[in-house]
Each structure stands twice: as structure tokens, then as C-alpha cells.
Protein: Beta-phosphoglucomutase
Organism: Planotetraspora silvatica
Amino acid sequence: MLGLPDGVRGCLFDMDGVLTRTATVHAAAWKRAFDEFLRTWAGRTGTPFTPFDEVSDYDSYVDGKKRLDGTRSFLVSRGIDLPEGDPGDPPDALTVNGVSNHKNALVQSVLDEKGVDVFDGSVRYVRAVREAGLKTAVVSSSANTARVLAAAGIADLFEARIDGAVAQTRDLAGKPAPDMYVAGAQALGLKPSEAAVFEDALAGVEAGRAGRFALVVGVDRVGQADALRDHGADTVVTDLADLLEQR
């Protein structure tokens, strides 16, 4: 009924794009932050301005990753080497932290103005998982996870949360490394072989595969089913509610 292998005792869910409709918010924030930086960079260096692609660049370099990791990954793809700077750098600072802080400020602004919507099918699935006696956790690279879950009204559906803030405190490597998902399983008292991973990001399904989890479910919101499989998804659905219909 849940589409899970025998022996699975817990489910680990990414948040943005799996539970909440916030992936597009992050993509738009990354585009604005990077485009503003790239215009400034082009003016200072005399290089052409090539804007951030909200689909291909987002999927390849930032989706599913911790904020600083995403910034570094995209800058490397453009051959740009910025100093790390400090966590308190202002959004206009030409540093990795500055660009990252600009992106986060944009996301915070949208969340304050528009709130958070959920994927109803995902909430149905999480409730069904809990009713079946399985444990649940959120594993998200976002440092805003607790705030988003609370705003969405679904924080009470999860027994544990491993997010960007926890990863920083515990020095956990971000996705595509498996560390955050392994920590999520441990927080539920489970081994990876006893847990399933649910992800919409390529880096996330890579993390699930690298951690040798019992099942890695790719959630295809943007027409990248083949890429999700290529990066490690065992199965791909367009909505988690689809799993409730499997026999």
C-alpha cells in the first residue's frame, strides 16, 4: 500500500519540492542573487554577462545542496574564484558568504510575503506512513527548514529533522554525500537499510544511493525522471500519492 520494501521502518523526506512548494522559490532566489552578482562581476572584469539558468544551472549546481556548497559549485562552473568571506557578510559583498546571504534574504522575503504551500499528495502519504507505524524525518539542506515546516503546518508529522543548520553544527557533509540522510536514519534509531529516501533533487538521490538506503524514491516535479534514475533513484513518481495506489 505504501510502495515500500519489506523491512523498511522509517521514511526520510526532503522538504523543498517533495513536501512543500518552495523549490521554485529557491530557484528564483538563486537566479536573482546570481544574476545580480554576475552583472557586477562582468562590469568589474570586462567579461560577458551570462545569466544563471533557472533550470539547467539550478539542477546541476545548487538544487538539494547546502547554500554555501551551491554557491561554490555554481561559481566553479563559471571559473569564478571568490573569497569565502564571513557568515555575517552583507548581501552585496563579493564573497561566497555574501552571495549566499543575498539568496537567503530573498527567500526569507518571499516566505514572509506569501507563506508556504504543501503538496497535498505528499502530506497524504506522510500521514499514511505514520498510520502504518513507520517513523518519519525531514532531511533538508535548507537552514530555514524548521520555519518552513511550521509555516506549512506540518512540523508535527516528523519525529526528527536534519537540516542545514543541524549539518553546520554537527559538521555534516551536504548532499550528494550521504551524511545528512544517514544522520536522519540514526535520529530515528534506524540503519540505512531500514529506511527509504524521498527526493526531487539529483544531488539528493545521489546521497540516498551512496548511503545504501533500502529504497530511493525520485519525485519528478520538472520532467527529469530519467536524470533522477541515472543519479540513483530506484523508482520515480510525479507525486507521492502515486505510491498509495501501488499494489
